[in-house]
Amino acid sequence: MSDSSSPPAPLSQGVGYGIVIGLGVAFAIGMVLTTRALKKVFGEDSHTTETFMVANRSVGTGLTASAVISSWTFTSALLGAPYLTYRYGVALPIWWANGQSVMICCFAYLAIQAKLKAPNAHTLLELIRVRYGHVAHILWIVMALINNIFNFTSMLVGASTAVSSLTGINVYASTYLLPLGVVVYTYWGGLRATFLTDYIHTFIIMIALVWFSLEVISRPEIGSIGALYDLIKALPSEGTVSGNHAGSYLSMTSDESLFFGIIHIVTNFGIVFMDTGFWQKGFSADVAAAVPGYILGGNAYFAIPFTFGTVVGLGALVLEQTPAWPTYPRRMTEAEVSGGLVLPYAASAVAGKGGAAAILLILFMACTSVASAQLIAVSSIVSFDIYGGYFNKKPTDRQLIRWSHIGVVGCALFISTFATVLHKGGVDLNWLLYMIGIAICPGTFPTCFALLWRKQTRAAAIISPILGMAAGFAVWFGTAHALYGEITITTTGKTLPCMYACLTSMFVPLPVAVLLSIRNENAFDWDEFLTIERVSDKHDDEGDEDTEGATPNNNRTPHKFNPSTYFTPERVTYMKRMSRIAAIWAIATFFGQIVLWPLPMYGAKTVMSRGLFVAWVVVGLVWLFVTLLVANFYPLFDGGARQIWEVLVAAKMSILGEKADTGREGWFDGGREVEVDEAIRVEAGQGKEK
């Protein structure tokens, strides 16, 4: 912070640079060596498009669930849930959590439908191009890039501000340095590197989150969950929270929390459905893993903003009254709160330099993990949809990879520069969290219709999102001016203008698309999606020194698509059954986490009792431990131990110059698909449809 009254950074710049640069370089080197070892020994070549973009479509349930948790653990979530809880109280973390969990479970349905209708697709935008042509395709390219750019930027703005406050590193330097190591290992390893590093990052993040949550409660200044309740009740600011019942931090009747929940839920439906990164993870999961992986990951993720936000946000309110707090005796300024500094300050108060270092570590891990997914998403748009769609209609595998690499590097440079501009313009994490849905949501319903409704016309797909975005921005600026008399960064970041604008941009396209399509008599034939082909795994004839020394299976195509083999009666029956399961889970999650839980408590207009609060936090902590098991240990149980062993064996054999048996199946190789097909046949045989 530039404010002269801001507390000194708890960690030195040397520690900051050591983590930001040192760990980034270490991950980059480790991933490059691992990728080369797997290629040399087992023929797992990240310089082929199917491996780089969709990991050969055979990632298991455990790793998919872990990747979902990792992809959703934005630094903005780790920073935002505590600081908004600090502002509005116990209701806020519920709305943050269900605003990220529900849509993941809903996306499970889209993921299995995509596998059923377009099994060879690499990106969402390929589906749009096949169905609606080039104009719609270009429009979706723009909307997808807006989505990825704002997601990446909001994460980087919050992370760089927090890193600067923890270490004293110049905020602009951290903005450019944080993505540096990610660029290297994503450049070399593609989506496989994303899955590998996602798992490692999530492993570290979950351990740190569990430790820090328990540490806050056990601080001498707090001591127990019941004591935390008593201390909240005794706060000078208790009873003064605007919009809360009785002004209490401990009431679920909180207008600002409800408004934020509406913004967050609507925004995140747009973020997930319009993020090509989520679609790529869906394409990369094997048929048996797509639905359970997304449902398990989505419900497990709920505990992170719910429990972490509750404990840290309320704990910060209490600790702020003690000498342990960095700004004591003054309260945090509005700029510090909006900048997301509640968590960094809480870390210093709870565990001094050790706590600050732990939070710095998890922010780095979360930032780099999400950055990797966003880089892959943008690179897929650059290579498949821009270069392959308009500059070279028949690109070779090597050319697509080259443009993917250009996309990775170019995206990182652009996002860092854009984040720097926002820093210069005084835009903080709060403003980005509230406004992002206005630009992202207009494509949500047209995207769903593209995969689920045969009758949506080309005109509807093009016109409806444009009208939705125009209406959203008009409502945003108009409401800000009507309510506050001016249009500035401050007024456009207020809750009500952002909420009305998000709802407008989300729902205006729905009636427009329906009205323009309802009389359409030329229903789309889903079989047209089968014209999308997988890119050959074979390199072109240009020299490629990386292929030298690789085993013969480096140039084979274990997953070459054969419709008659893929669409077996057992597989089709299985995917239809999983579609029904995904739909049921999506509906149940929506009603359970939104309609039946926080809404009735909002209407009750009560303040939590001590016993309810203790039970509330205990349930959250148990849920957080379950998330730890799902993210860290279930992937090992679900074949991950064998896969990690393969990585270690590959590294050893590569160092010793040994070669693997050419019949050996690698991590993402055909052996996994054989196992999956056998499981599908067994399950389909138990309840086969007519």
Automatic annotation (TrEMBL):
The chain crosses the membrane at residues 15-33, 54-74, 94-112, 132-150, 170-188, 258-279, 300-319, 358-388, 400-419, 431-452, 459-478, 498-518, 581-599, 611-634. Its main location: membrane. CDD domains: SLC5sbd_DUR3. Residues 538-560 are annotated as: Disordered. The keyword Glycosyltransferase does not apply. Keywords: Membrane, Transmembrane, Transmembrane helix. The keyword Hydrolase does not apply. Residues 550-560 have a biased composition (Polar residues). It is a multi-pass membrane protein. It comes from the Eukaryota. It is found in: Membrane. Belongs to the sodium:solute symporter (SSF) (TC 2.A.21) family. PANTHER family: ACTIVE TRANSPORTER, PUTATIVE (AFU_ORTHOLOGUE AFUA_1G17570)-RELATED, PTHR46154. This is Sodium:solute symporter family-domain-containing protein. It comes from Aspergillus keveii.
